[in-house]
Amino acid sequence: MTTAKHACPICGEYAFEYANSYDICPVCHWEDEEYQIKHPDEEDGPNGGMSLNQYRAEWEKRRKTA
């Protein structure tokens, strides 16, 4: 088993073995990829048509209501 060393930019959990791995976070389901990290307001990417900043805001909203 590999120990995750890279934190998810959405939920903060150490979910990825390395940065920009294209893996899916098991906690918030964000796909870790470089383009949206470099362009956090860009909606064109693998994460349901949401930018990193939109996804992060939605995650925070869901966390507060859970």
Between the first and last Cα atoms, what is the distance in angstroms? 30 Å
Low-confidence stretches: none
- Total count of helical runs of at least 4 residues: 2
Radius of gyration: 12 Å
Output the structural class. alpha+beta
Mean pLDDT: 92
Q: How many separate structural domains?
A: 1
Q: What is the total tally of β strands?
A: 2
Order of H and E elements: EEHH
* Percent of residues in beta strands: 5-15%
Label the overall shape.
Answer: globular
Strand order of the largest sheet: 1-2
Q: Could you give a short account of the major beta sheet?
A: 2 strands, antiparallel
What share of the residues lie within helices?
A: 25-40%
Q: Could you list some keywords that capture this structure?
A:
alpha+beta, two-stranded antiparallel ribbon, 2 helices
What would your notes on this structure say?
- The protein has 66 residues and is an alpha+beta fold.
- The protein has one domain (6-65).
- The protein has two helices and two strands, in the order ββαα.
- The chain has helices spanning 34-38, 52-65; strands spanning 6-7, 14-16.
- A two-stranded antiparallel sheet has the order 1-2.
- The N and C termini lie far apart (30 Å).
Any chance you could write out the topology, listing elements then pairs?
Blueprint: E1 6-7, E2 14-16, H1 34-38, H2 52-65
Antiparallel strand pairs: 1-2
